[in-house]
Amino acid sequence: MASVRFTVTPTKAEDVPGLSDTSPDISSRSSGRVRFGSRESVNRSEPPSEASGALTTSAGTTGADTPDRSNVEQDGHGKLSGVYINNTHGVDDDDFYDRNLALFEEEMDTRPKVSLLLSRLANYTNLTQGAKEHEEAESIGEKRKSPQMGTFMGVYLPCLQNIFGVILFLRLTWVVGTAGVLQALCIVFICCCCTMLTAISMSAIATNGVVPAGGSYFMISRSLGPEFGGAVGLCFYLGTTFASAMYILGAIEILLMYIVPEAAIFRSNNEDGDGAAMLNNMRVYGSIFLLLMSTLVFVGVKYVNKLASIFLACVIVSILSIYTGALVSAFSPPTFPVCMLGNRTLPTHALGDGHCAKMVTVTTKLWTHFCQGPEPNASCDEYFDQSNVTQIPGIPGLSSGIITENLWSSYLSKGEVIEKQSLPSPNIPHSPSSRHLYVFADITTSFTLLVGIFFPSVTGIMAGSNRSGDLKDAQRSIPVGTILAILTTSLVYLSNVVLFGACIEGVVLRDKFGDSVQGNLVVGTLSWPSPWVIVIGSFFSTCGAGLQSLTGAPRLLQAIAKDNIIPFLRVFGHGKANGEPTWALLLTALIAELGILIASLDLVAPILSMFFLMCYLFVNLACAVQTLLRTPNWRPRFSYYHWTLSFLGMTICLALMFISSWYYAIVAMVIAGMIYKYIEYHGAEKEWGDGIRGLSLSAARYALLRLEEGPPHTKNWRPQLLVLLKLDEDAHVKSPRLLTFASQLKAGKGLTIVGTVIPGNFLHSYGDAMAAEQTLKHLMEKERVKGFYQCIVAQKPREGINHMIQSSGLGGMRPNTVVMGWPHAWRQSEDPQSWKTFINTVRVTTTAHLALLVPKNISLFPTNSEPCTDGTIDVWWIVHDGGMLMLLPFLLRQHKVWKKCGMRIFTVAQMEDNSIQMKKDLATFLYHLRIDAEVEVVEMHDSDISAYTYERTLMMEQRSQMLQQMRLSKSDREKEVSDFAPSVVVVSCRLRCPFKESLHRRVHMTWTKEKALQVRAQSGSNTPEGFRDMLSIRPDHSNVRRMHTAVKLNEVIVNKSHDARLVLLNMPGPPKNPEGDENYMEFLEVLTEGLERVLLVRGGGSEVITIYS
Predict the structure, then answer these.
(1) How confident is the model at residue 1036, as a pLDDT?
(2) Where is the composition biased (Basic and acidic residues) (predicted)?
């Protein structure tokens, strides 16, 4: 043996003699890696190969005297490892890469090298590495642009654009005027606290790894599981969809009321019908706007993104104009006079000629509205006669002190006139007929209603997390940008509440549509330099927000559909070739149309508030659950969070839901609950490492530790089943009805473990074990049995069952009852292992103090689709077994199959027993057990042993002895053959003999003449004399007595219960001496002969039923 060391260095393949011409396939391979540099042993006794010949040539050309050191050079495009390595097993050359890791080469397929893992992480862009569901979507070799967006452009500004919206411009002044400054500050503060606490929780989740597309849906689903994720994801989708409808309705309101009122299609002849006509206009124009926006989104999102910056600029300019106008109003307030009749506000259209007076040389237009004619002496309205017409400034200005009047609330009912309490007014109620002459409240207002209407103006905090893939450092940008955006918007809202209350007259603030200020947008009257700045800016900002919602909602639905957790949504996961969600956009447009048909901004806002609040609630819940569970993977970079903050945020969200609209809250919860249950029962199974699973594990651990504190009380006893099933050669369950029967016992709601044993070696039978477990799983799903399945591989089935009985369960959740089938045709079976395994299992369950249920003739038991319409369940209570015989019929009758069956209990009285008293006592006992059953005591008189009993015992013992002799002779033959085999043939082979196994088979079949005579002489049972000796035996006395009992009991049971649907019977224990096992099986056969369905019951030694409460 000699050691040859090869050193391979990169060079050109042509420089190596003999390779460029003779080995073109080697030089054509591409590899840029040095394959090896270690010592290889070459056996000189082996015949020279082509590789060794090439080696000699190569060594000779370099002028080396001996081939113990060769410098072989190759190009980076060539690979020479195959030349020098004896690859006899056909392993690819790549398996020899990096000999320093040869010990781990078999694990490379499932466990990548650290260098490979790090290179993948270094090239990371948007998808979470190591997460299977995202790696599947990653195309190999696809080039992506590296994210470059920072905190300001990537998170802060998108959040501002999504948070500032239609409510700020159209409803915030009305909220301030109605609720008062103090309560309005409270409303804004509560809503902003809700979003701030949610943002803290969201920042913790978003910085605990990478959040791909889907934003809040992804965070909730991966934190709380697919059921919660799907339910809340769809709620968030519906909220975003209704938000688009709300923004479109806001844009139409601005268009038709403040920009081009002449564009209204529907007009009312009387002013009472103006509201209905306006709603119809909103529906028509809203549908047109929705169609145009959906078309724009369908054509290309890039156009929406380009317009986003313009819309954001409109928002910022509009807000700045409000602040500027408020400051200017301190010095020179704008002129917007408000006409008042007494303390009641008059709309501008009631003036007609613009004169806010009763008379100007002649009567004015106002006079004609309240009087029966233009004459000065005409009869007029009483309130008009006794009240003065005055003008007050609509914008008194920042320094006017009007805030003292606007501090307090002024909630109104629908139809009430907007009044200024500080002005004098006669105490005369206004008549409904003159309602159109005043500015009145269009809806009944309350604190809760205003909360629901205002809350959509603080939503939109998820915009940053939705763009995590475009951020340069998402872990830093999302928390900083989102929290700064919320602080900014909260400051803007709170300051605007104070400015509105300090600058604008109260009656103008409560005038929702600006009728008292010449039909101007109320917030526009404060803006500088012109109201049109706010009007145009708010119109474009609402259009932009609607486009953003129509863009985001279909993508959210597509993300849910692609997760495949809701089967009927799969179609919405498809789209155009570039991935645009066409079908999802169509559904979004249809749902948004429903919101537009509502046509009222004040009615749509609470709907989307519910959905957003539910989403935020579960974001807080996800953070709190993850924090409290302290899962090892919970390591957020954002550290300024606490579970108490998350619970506080969750509480505020829940409170706001019911404060704003309790019936909408219930509807939203019912929708989410229905989606949750649908996903739970029909959705695809997903394992996302969610927090609810972690919570279940913690709860299970806690419960198991509590159960360990002591044995269960008799009142808490319920059958914890271990069902032993047998599989055939094709891995099919031989007796599936056994599991059906177990499912019918599940009224006790206990544990169920379905187990089977596969003979063999676990190292070689792992695949079979997995296949067997899948078979059990599918059968359990078919029978709707909730439980666990277990498969054990053992050399002998008996040992496997022993291991399963000993090791099944965990802590206090261990099986207390074993269900196993009866060994069919055990008499005809040549292999005694089936019934020996059965008896061994009976002994093991007795030793383990477990109850045992053995259904006999299980194939005749009813399925779950075959209910028994009549009949009885008969219980033969022969010995006390802890009450199992009483409890089992009760549990069975809870199931629909046995529900209509009556219950009869039989017990056996001996000669010395008082059968009448026994019947009374048994009836009393059942009364205290609260079990309804007929009671009967069967008297069994002492009688002589019949000839039939004697003959049956004799046949049993003869059969037993015959089988024993046959098994002994067979084992003797096998033993002698194995001892004699080496003397017949001796094989010596130092090398591998391919025919060795077949040779051994021939040896085992080889007999010598002398050996055959010897075995025949020793086997007396093979002679006729041996059979005659067997026939002359006398049966054992104890066997005769046992057979007598079995025969007599069987006669009584068949006589009384031959037509029963099911017979429950005490199962006698096996004999202590294993030699009588065959007789034990015969006794059981005789005991149950002639009965269609029998359940043999053996108690576990503990009481399972009690008369006490």
Answers:
(1) 67
(2) 66-78
Three-state DSSP class for 251?
helix
DSSP letters, 971-1033, are HHHHHHHHHHHHHH-----SS--TTHHHHHHHHHT---HHHHHHHHHH-GGGSHHHHHHHHT-
Helices first, then strands: H and E counts in the chain: 40, 18
First to last CA, the chain: 87
For the segment 947-975, what is each residue's pLDDT rounded down to a tens digit? 666 667 767 766 666 666 665 555 555 55
The string of pLDDT tens digits covering residues 504-529 is: 999 999 988 888 888 888 999 998 88
Cα torsion 812, 817, 819, 820: sign: positive
Give the pLDDT score at 971.
55
**Rounded distance between C-alpha atoms, residue 387 and residue 298, angstroms:** 59
The mean pLDDT of 609-621, rounded to a whole number, is 89
Only one residue has tokens 């060794």, namely 52
Which tokens belong to 261?
Answer: 């009122």
pLDDT band of residue 675 (cuts 50, 70, 90) is confident
Alpha helices in 136-273, H assignment, sequence order = 151, 157-163, 166-170, 172-206, 216-224, 226-254
How does residue 483 score in pLDDT terms, banded at 50, 70 and 90?
very high
Beta strands at 337-341 and 344-345: parallel, antiparallel or unpaired: antiparallel
Distance CA 991, CA 983 (A): 22
- Asked if residues 394 and 505 have their Cβ atoms less than 8 Å apart, the reply is yes
Pairing status of strand 337-341 against strand 39-42? unpaired
Which residues have C-beta within 8 Å of that of residue 739, sequence separation ≥ 6? 723, 725, 733, 754, 779, 780, 783, 785
Strand-pair category, 934-939 with 1062-1066: unpaired
pLDDT of 143 strictly over 50: no
- Cα dihedral 560, 564, 569, 573 in deg (nearest 10): 70
Q: How far apart are CA 635 and CA 619, in angstroms?
A: 17
Do the beta carbons of residue 79 and residue 35 sit within 8 Å? yes
Helix %, strand %, coil % for the chain, to 5? 55, 10, 35
Q: Identify the pLDDT of residue 115.
A: 53
Helices (H), 902-946: 915-928
Which position has the token pair 């503060």? 189
Structure tokens at 405: 């009047």
pLDDT tens digit sequence for 702-742:
777 777 666 677 766 778 889 999 888 777 888 888 888 88
- DSSP secondary structure, 692-760, as one string: HHHHHHHHHHHHHHHHTTSPPPGGG----EEEE--B-TTS-BS-THHHHHHHHTGGG---EEEEEEEES
Rounded Cα gap, residues 835 and 960, in angstroms: 13
3-state secondary structure 229-241: HHHHHHHHHHHHH
1019, 1022, 1025, 1031: CA torsion to nearest 10: 110
Environment class of 576 (CB within 10 Å of its CB; exposed 0-12, middle 13-18, buried 19+):
exposed
On the 0-12 / 13-18 / 19+ scale of CB atoms within 10 A, 423 is middle
